[in-house]
Amino acid sequence: MKAALTLEALSVGNPGGPAILSALSFEVRPGEVVALLGANGCGKTTLLRSIAGLVPALSGGVRLLGQAAPRGAVARAEAGLALAFQNPDDQLFGATVGEDVATGPLHQGLAPGEVRARVDEALAATGLTHLAGRSIEALSFGEKKRACLAGVLAMHPAVLLLDEPTAGLDPVGERETAGLLRRLAREREVALLVSTHATDEVPFFADRVAILGEGRLLAFGSPADVFRDAALLARARLRAPAVAELWAHLAPFLPGLGAAPPLTVAEAASRLLPLLVPSHQEVHP
Ligand SMILES: Nc1ncnc2c1ncn2[C@@H]1O[C@H](COP(=O)(O)OP(=O)(O)OP(=O)(O)O)[C@@H](O)[C@H]1O
């Protein structure tokens, strides 16, 4: 399958400054979610802004849907790419939530009925329908983050870049957003590149993980591969999901657990129950 987004030896930094990340090469396929992980200040936002065309690359290239990406943010948006900003105040300009979410579809030149349908759909997906008429200034931080997500969803992009979409969300909202990202990828074939510090959610939404650190791409692989590499995580100032850390503490004393830790509570439960309750499999086949 042709990649939706391809980075070719891309080096990025702030205008006039040195490279923050050098020679990054990886791709995101249609229907795939790639999580972008790395410590504070490693360059996740800089990378996403550069891919979106807001900051020129220092060297290397970006391909969108198989073509060299056009220059500049507007041309890249027209080519099917959207970025939801880390700081909602950088993105939200409409008077009300509904007006703000309509901005993208209106710029796309859609008919009024289609714009309304896109807005309704995006607000429902992000749990904001009841706030459609509320002024942007009156929103809580978490509501603003959801409004940012709704705004990019309404544009129906082929490639969606999300900068910490779950930051500031309540725990249920965090899990709901993880599910929404999964569905977007599966049902609409969107390619998603998502920067996040929500380590415990990554196994729920990401197919592959890009680990950034030391000014470069340290690793690119499945959540199982990267989260089971303790040396890699230490180098990148990251940790595995909490349930995998618990497993690592227990495994030396309970050989039956096996070495490869689970990444979700559900996976841990299904592996622990037969050990702790031998009759479990007969009772609950
Ligand atoms: N306008 C700017 N001018 C100079 N340096 C900047 C500018 N914006 C960001 N930086 C620096 O660039 C580096 C990368 O910042 P960036 O925001 O991309 O990191 P990040 O990985 O997204 O961090 P976080 O996890 O804290 O959001 C940081 O050291 C930051 O201080």
Report a brief summary of the structure:
This protein has 12 helices and 10 strands. It is α/β, with parallel strands linked by helices.
Account of the 3D structure:
With 285 residues, this protein is an alpha/beta fold. A six-stranded mixed beta sheet has the order 6-7-8-3-9-10, sandwiched between helices. It has a four-stranded antiparallel beta sheet with strand order 2-1-4-5, with helices on one face. Strand 7, helix 6 and strand 8 form a beta-alpha-beta unit. The model has no long low-confidence stretch (mean pLDDT 93). The site of adenosine-5'-triphosphate has 11 residues, from helix 1.
What is the tally of helical segments? 12
Q: In angstroms, what is the radius of gyration? A: 20 Å
Bound molecules: adenosine-5'-triphosphate
SS strand fraction: 15-25%
Share in helix: 25-40%
Largest sheet: 6 strands, mixed
Give the CA-CA distance, first to last residue: 38 Å
Based on DSSP secondary structure assignment, what is the total number of beta strands?
A: 10
For the largest sheet, list the strands in their spatial order: 6-7-8-3-9-10
| Mean pLDDT value | 93
Q: Which secondary-structure class do the elements indicate?
A: alpha/beta
What would the principal axes of the Cα set say about the shape? globular
Q: State the low-pLDDT regions, or none.
A: none
Question: How do the SSEs run, as a string of H and E?
Answer: EEEHEEHEHHHEHEHEEHHHHH
The oligomeric state is single chain
